[in-house]
Amino acid sequence: MYDSYKRHISYLRISVTDRCNLACRYCMPEQVKSASGGNQILDFEELAHIIRTLVPMGISKIRLTGGEPLVRKGLDEFVGMISGIEGIREITMTTNGLLLPGMAEKLASAGLDRVNISLDTLDPERYRELTRGGDIRRVKRGIDAAVKHGLNPVKINCVITPETTPAEITDLKEFCRSKDLGLRFIRQMNLGSGKFWKVEGGEGGHCLICNRIRLTSDGRFIPCLFSEKEFDIKDYGIKEAFSRAVQQKPEKGRVNSRNTFYGIGG
User: Whose CA, among 31, 68, 128, 171, lies 20 to 30 Å from 243?
Assistant: First the structure.
């Protein structure tokens, strides 16, 4: 399916939860770390049905996001469920990596192709401060587990904040070079003011070629990270909600004061 600007929409980012085991300062207020109501979230069977419905409409790539997707129990089983859907060519995931040491092998066996792992600094104290308590040693073990079990190419997502130092950037570049990891720099964005930039080393923020639609954990299609429009499958049904989201995808991002990064997958 093509949007009104002739972009072929083939990429669905699914936020499987808005819960997270961290509360990064630029993403999530600490008080909403466990805010989701379980009764509001689509179950995995419903999500799989949505994907099956959208494949004939052009969707071929799935990215699982959050929140932190790995805090949702049974995610490996969900990956197995959707990896067998004919027409899905790639399943990826964005994660903070904390739970990957115990999950990488299961995810790879289930059919996950690769992962992006969030890591904004290699300084343990600064990482703990940025994430409000995260242990960088667990992230590094998660990176090693992802590489070991073939979730390649493993890519590191680094958010550049006003406090990021040149030394931190240099250290991350050397760390990724030494482990043969991809590295993407993402300047800190602001949904409410509409401030965003092209991702260095990735395709995010390149509006002219954007081929993605977002699906929230409670069943709302969002045309763009920086769009306030949303289309709930409960109101329109799957095909109509998706079609409306595609048709309303803006030429470029504007503002989004209705949603949060942790609620729609960043």
Answer: 68
How far is residue 218's CA from residue 259's CA, in Å, rounded to a whole number? Answer: 13
In our burial notation (b when 16+ CB lie closer than 10 A, e otherwise), range 7-33 reads bebbbbbbbbbbbbbbbbeebbeeeeb
Q: Can you give the pTM of this predicted structure?
A: 0.95
What is the Cα–Cα distance from 9 to 112, expressed in whole angstroms?
Answer: 21
Residue range 89-128, pLDDT digits in tens: 999 999 999 999 999 999 999 999 999 999 999 999 999 9
CA distance 62 to 42: 16
Q: Which CATH architecture has domain 11-264?
A: Alpha-Beta Barrel (3.20)
Q: How far apart are CA 137 and CA 124, in angstroms?
A: 8
> What phi and psi values does residue 91 have, to the nearest 5 degrees?
-125, 120
Residues 10-26 pLDDT 10s: 999 999 999 999 999 99
String of DSSP letters for 117-166: EE---S-HHHHHHHHTS--HHHHHHHHHHHHHTT--S-EEEEEE-TT--H
| Cα angle value 221/224/230 (rounded, 5°) | 35
Identify the three-state secondary structure at position 69. helix
**In sequence order, what are the beta bridge partners of 212?**
11
From the list 173, 16, 8, 199, the residue with the least C-alpha distance to 93 is: 16
Cβ(93)–Cβ(63) under 8 Å?
yes
Q: Across the strands, what pairs with 160?
A: 187
